[in-house]
Write a structure and sequence with these properties.
Elements (H helix, E strand, L loop, with lengths): L4 E6 L18 H21 L5 E8 L7 H14 L2 E11 L6 H9 L4 E7 L3 H7 L5 H13 L5 E7 L6 H14 L3 E6 L7 H7 L8 H17 L3 E4 L2 E3 L6 H7 L5 E3 L4 E4 L2 E5 L3 H9 L5 E6 L2 H12 L6 E2 H8 L3 H14 L3 E3 L3 E4 L7 H6 L5
Parallel strand pairs: 1-2, 1-9, 2-3, 3-4, 4-5, 5-6
Antiparallel strand pairs: 6-8, 7-8, 10-11, 11-12, 13-15, 14-15
Bound molecules: iron/sulfur cluster (SF4).
Length: 379
């Protein structure tokens, strides 16, 4: 299977959020220019060295890709189009943060073919945004969202978080209400996970991070599902909701365990059953590209046994689940011959639903999805 998706990592942010372990740095415009020089080289090599089909999906993630100014944003789009051919109706997404877009920049992105914007809103409660170390406030969300609409973006995702310090179910409910009033086409909502090496992890260890109790976290997730369903959003993945026709095609490639190319510092790709990781340090990445090669620091061939498990674990994240026919076609073996015992056990516990086309998570399994996924780790 040849890749027809490309992820491009832009590792710059205006400041570092206290919970963030993504590969992102606060940097200068001059470094960003040199990063784009390097990306130009890497993308050129990538497009020549790899076999790929006209791209169906492209995702500029970060970091904050809209940290680039208008000229740099135009360059970012030119680099993509110079090295890669895109399929008609390709989905091109760009992650943005409230307060980092203006009319000119958005125009340049639109002209470059970007048709999907994703804003990291996280909360509409200013005190909580401060606790997260976010730079924007709720008013900025409204301004940036309005600018995106004025620029003609008709597919917008807003990210929301729950289980945050100082957050009650009522506060989360208010953020949800304000988000649905804005009526974006797509909403992604994640529970906070305290990651090692972040200020939050340090504060947690010192007993200074006060998170809501587990039952509130669960109540927020249930409220999320009920509210978005009532507002016409289809839940298509355990954390993702979309209006009709606005599911993120790029992310579905990951969940279907299909191949994708990746470029940029710290990016992860998956091609020919090999997962690879690009150098994450920006200076080392730039140096590697200047030397005329892709600065790939890790490559791991994924054995067939692990690929089968991945197909189950990633596929069950989607509410459509894993289809028997697709599994057979991908792996040359029936799902029931490999995982029949496991799926039966989970079905008996009410955690999986099986019908004539495949298996999927039951409603009651959604809050404990990780427990279901771990049952498929057999190799
Ligand atoms: S804006 Fe996003 S990528 Fe940047 S520091 Fe905050 S969470 Fe991390």
């Amino acid at each position: 299977m040849m890749p027809s998706s490309l992820y491009i990592h832009i590792p710059f942010c205006a400041s570092k959020c206290y919970y963030c372990d993504f590969n992102s740095y606060v940097s200068t415009g001059e470094v960003m220019d040199r990063y784009l020089d390097a990306l130009d080289i890497e993308m050129g090599i990538l497009s020549r060295e790899m076999n790929w089909e006209p791209l169906q999906t492209v995702f500029f993630g970060g970091g904050t890709p809209t940290m680039f100014d208008t000229r740099q944003s135009e360059r970012m789009m030119n680099i993509l189009h110079r090295h890669f051919r895109l399929a008609e109706e390709a989905e091109i997404s760009v992650e943005a943060n409230p307060g980092t877009v203006n009319a000119e920049k958005l125009q340049v992105l639109r002209e470059g073919g970007v048709n999907r914007l994703s804003f990291g809103v996280q909360s509409f409660h200013d005190a909580i945004l401060k606790k997260l170390g976010r730079l924007h406030d709720s008013l900025t969300v409204y301004h940036s969202y309005e600018k995106a609409r004025q620029a003609g973006f008709s597919s917008i995702n807003l990210d929301l978080m729950f289980g945050l310090p100082g957050q009650t179910v009522e506060i989360f409910s208010d953020s949800l209400r304000r988000m649905t009033e804005l009526a974006p086409e797509h909403i992604s909502a994640y529970s906070l996970k305290v990651e090692e090496g972040t200020p939050f992890a340090v504060w947690q260890e010192r007993g200074k991070l006060h998170l809501p109790p587990e039952e509130d976290d669960l109540a927020m997730y249930n409220l999320l599902m009920e509210t978005l369903e009532a507002h016409g959003y289809g839940m298509y993945e355990i954390s993702n909701f979309a209006k009709n026709g606005h599911e993120c095609r790029h992310n579905k490639v990951y969940w279907r365990n299909e191949p994708y190319l990746a470029a940029g510092a710290g990016a992860h790709g998956y091609v020919n059953h090999v997962r690879y990781v690009v150098e994450s340090s920006v200076p080392a990445y730039i140096e590697g590209c200047q030397a005329g090669k892709r600065p790939v620091v890790e490559q791991e061939a994924i054995p067939e046994a692990i690929r089968r498990e991945d197909t189950m674990i990633l596929g069950l994240r989607m509410l459509e689940g894993v289809r028997f026919a697709r599994f057979q076609e991908r792996h040359g073996i029936e799902m029931r011959d490999l995982f029949g015992d496991i799926t039966s056990r989970l079905e008996q516990r009410g955690l999986l639903v099986r019908d004539e086309v495949g298996v999927r998570l039951s409603r009651q399994a959604l809050p404990i999805a990780n427990e279901v996924f771990s049952a498929f780790l057999i190799s």
